[in-house]
Write a structure and sequence with these properties.
InterPro entries: Autotransporte_beta_dom_sf, Beta-barrel_OMP. This protein is mainly β. 10% of the residues lie in helices and 68% in strands. It has one domain: Beta Barrel (Porin), CATH 2.40.160.20. It is elongated and about 65 Å long.
Amino acid sequence: MIKAVLASLSCTLLATTPAFAEDSMTGTAHVEGQLALDHLRLTDQTGSSAAGTTTGNNRLLVGIGAGYDLPVGGGLLAGVDAGVMGLGKSACASSVTASGDQLCSKVKRDISAGARLGYQAGPALLFGRVAYDNSRVGSTYTASDGTTVTTAAHSTGSPQVGGGVELGLGAGLYGKAEYRYNTRSDGTYHQSQLLTGVGIKF
C-alpha cells in the first residue's frame, strides 16, 4: 500500500511538470552526499538462545541521495527523493542472555524513496517527508562457549517519516540536517537516524 501511494505521488508530480512550466515555475533537481548516525533496535532472529532479544546500537552510515522539487505557490515546494546508505560497521551487544555471549547486527544497505513537502523561508527550506525504507540486515549470535549462529542477510521494509531543514550556501550548494524514523508493524525493527548532508541543486 505504501509503495503504491508513493508511486502514484511520484507519477503525479512528474506528469504535472509541464503545467508548472507553463506558469513559469521551474523544478529543481538535487544530488547530495549523506552521513547519518543510525540507531537500530533489532529483534534477533537467528534461532539461537538469544532469539526474541532486542538490542540497540549506534553506527555511522554513509550514502548518496537525489531528488526533484517543484514550487506549488506560496513558498511551498513538493518533491520526490531517493537514496541509498551503507558501509556501516557491525554493532554488537555483549552478555545478551548469558555472561560472555555476543549478538552483532549490521545494516548492509539501506534504500529509501519518498515524497516531501517543504516551505522556503529565505535561504532555509523546512520540510517534512514520508517514504518507504528497505534495509538489508544480518545478525550473528556467539554463545559463551564460542558456538556461532548466523542468519543470512535479509531485507526488511517499513514506512518512514521524518523532517528537517536545508540551508542554502550559495552557488547552488546547500547543507541539510534531517531526522528519520521507521519501524515494522510487528515490532521487530526500529530505526532512528540523525542525518546530515551536503549537496548541489541544478
